[in-house]
């Protein structure tokens, strides 16, 4: 087993290829040990070079609505009036602390996603 750090895209591609060849390794073997170490290296490299940005709060709300099959009217009890829901979802108004708390509790959206800053559209 010859393992080295992943320093560039060429190393990354080569490591992924090696991982692919080790995918059928049996537990408690040197091949499985190598697979686990390489997977850890790839994870660290991807974390540094392929970060996935968190969605803005409104996109997080829309995603949860889609997951749950919710319509705008279903948010009235969480956010306020029908017009307030529309303003929020169209980014014409910012979420308030109370709205964030309600969205987190009732729709189980991670609170850290709801607190991210986002731009509103001015009329």
How would you name the CATH homologous superfamily of the largest domain? lambda repressor-like DNA-binding domains
> Main β-sheet, in a few words?
none
Task: Give the total of beta strands.
Answer: 0
Question: What oligomeric state best describes the polypeptide chains here?
Answer: single chain
What's the end-to-end separation, in Å? 62 Å
Question: Could you state the order of secondary-structure elements as H and E?
Answer: HHHHHHH
Number of domains: 2
What is the residue-mean pLDDT, rounded to a whole number?
92
At the third CATH level, what is the topology name of the largest domain? 434 Repressor (Amino-terminal Domain)
SS content category: mainly alpha
- State Rg: 22 Å
What portion of residues is helical?
55-70%
Specify the CATH architecture of the largest domain.
Orthogonal Bundle
Shape: elongated
SS strand fraction:
under 5%
Low-confidence stretches: none
CATH class of the largest domain reads Mainly Alpha
List the total number of helices.
7
